[in-house]
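Q: What would this chain look like folded?
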Amino acid sequence: MANKYKSDIEIAQEATMLPIKEVAAKIGVKEDDLELYGKYKAKLSDEYRESIKDNPDGKLVLVTAINPTPAGEGKTTITVGLGEALGKLNKKSVIALREPSLGPCFGIKGGAAGGGYAQVVPMEDLNLHFTGDFHAITSANNLLAALLDNHIHQGNELRIDTRQIVWKRCLDMNDRALRDIVVGMGPKANGFVREDHFVITVASEIMAILCLANDMHDLKERLSKIIVAYNVDGDPVTAGDLKAVGAMAALLKDAIKPNLIQTLEHTPAIVHGGPFANIAHGCNSVIATKLALKMADVVVTEAGFGADLGAEKFLDIKCRKAGLKPDAIVLVATVRALKYNGGVAKADLNEENLEALSKGIVNLEKHIENLQKFGVPVVVTLNAFVTDTQAEYEFVKKFCEDRDCEFALAKVWENGGEGGIELANKVLYTLENKESKYKPLYEDDMNLEDKIETVAKEIYGADGVDYSPAAKRQLSKISEMGFSNLPVCMAKTQYSLSDDQTKLGRPTDFRINVREVYVSAGAGFVVVITGAIMTMPGLPKQPAAFGIDVDDNGKISGLF
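A: My prediction, written as C-alpha cells:
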C-alpha cells in the first residue's frame, strides 16, 4: 500500500519516468513525430497529426465534479487514475488535460497535475513554465495591446474611440493591483493617457481561441476577428484591422502543438491549453482532444471546476463548436465534500455524519440531473479518503443507483491505476451498454437573453436573471452586430450553483445577477459576467508561494 504521508511533489520526484519517446512508442508514435523539450516532454508534430487523421475515433469520456469545496474533490486525480486503470485493463487509453496556470500555483488552489499515485509528471515542469505555451499566449495578447496603443499614438487612422477600448493586457499571475490601471502617463511620446485593465492569461480570448481552433488556418481566422475596440461611429475594430494577425500567429506557432507527457505509470497524457472554467470555457484544446481520439480506444478528458461550469461549457461550447460527441461522463464527489455541503465544518469532516451527508448530497443530485439533460450516460465516482466509512459509501451508492447512474469507488490517490479498476469497469460497461444521445442544452438560434436564462434556470436552478443597465446595453449591441447565434460562456463563482459563493448545497429562491456582457468574436462565444467574479484574481493572505522553495541542487519543494 502506498505511503499516505508523502506529499504529491515527493511522490512525483521519487517516480522513475520513462523517456517520453518510449511512452510515445507504446501508442505507435515515432521519435520523428516528436519535438522534444528535454527527455520527458515533447510536442506532437503537425506531420503526425496529419498522418493519423483518417484513423477511427476512440470513445470520449468527460470527467467533471460537484462544486469544489475546501474539503477537496480530486477531479484531475480521478482523470489520471481512470486513464491508468483503463491501461491495466488492456485498453489503449490516452488522457487529455489542461495546462495549469501559475496564478493558482502561487495562490490558493495549487497546480493541476493530479495527486498521490495518480499524477502526471514531470510535475514541477507542468506546474511552472512547461513548454512555454502560456508565455506565448501572454506575448501574443500583449503584442496586440501594444499595436493597438501604438496605432492610436501614430495618428489613429482607424478613428478608435479611446473610451471604447475593450482589449485588455494579460499576465499569468494573480495580481489584483493590475485589474484597473492607467497607461500612457508622462510625456506625449509615452502614448495616449487612458484607463486600462489586465486579466489573467487563462481568461484571455487568445487562450480560448488556441483551445477552440482546429489548425493554424483556423487560428489565424479567429485571431483576425478579435474585437479590440470600437470606433467613433460605434463600429467594431478588430485585430485584423490592426494588421496584428501574422505576428500573433508567429508567436503561437509552437504553442498550437499539443504537449505529450506521462503519468506515474507511464500512460500517455496530452496536456494542452488551460482556460479557467469560472471565467472562460474551461476545457483543453480541440486539437488535443481530436488528436487523442485518433490515437486511443478511450480518451479521458476533464473540464474545470464543477459540472455547472466546466461540463456545461464542454457540452454547450466545445462539443457544439468542434463536432465532438461525448460517450460517457464521470461525475466526481467525495464524502467529505458532500458533508461540507451539508453544513459540517472543515475541522469535523473526518467524523461519520449520515445526517449531514443526506443534506449535502443534494449538490450531487443537481449535477446528476443537469448532466442527464444533455443525454449522456453518467457514472458517479467517490474519490475515497481514509476517514470515509462503509455506511457513508453505501448511502451515496444507493442514492446514485436510484437515479439511474452507475457508481464506483475510486482509490486512485492511494493506489494509482489499480485503485481505479472498479471505476474503469463501470465506465467500460457504460460505453458498451448505454448509448449517448448527446445534445446541447439550447439551440443556436435562441436569442442571447434566452440562452442565459436557460443556463441560469436549467443548470443553476435560478428563478431568473437580473441585468445591470450596462449589461442590457451590451446585450443589445452584441445582438445588433449579429452575434446572437453564439453560445454563452458564463463567468460565475465555482463554489456555488448560484452566483453567491456562500450558498452551498442546492440553493433555491435566487436570481443570477449579470453585470457585464461582451463578445469574444474570435473564440466564438459571448462572455456573461455574473455576481462578483473577477477576471484577474488576487492572492490570499497566506499565498502558496510562501511555501515554495528550491534547494542548492535545484530541487523544488512546496508545490502541490
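The first strand starts at residue 34 and ends at 36.
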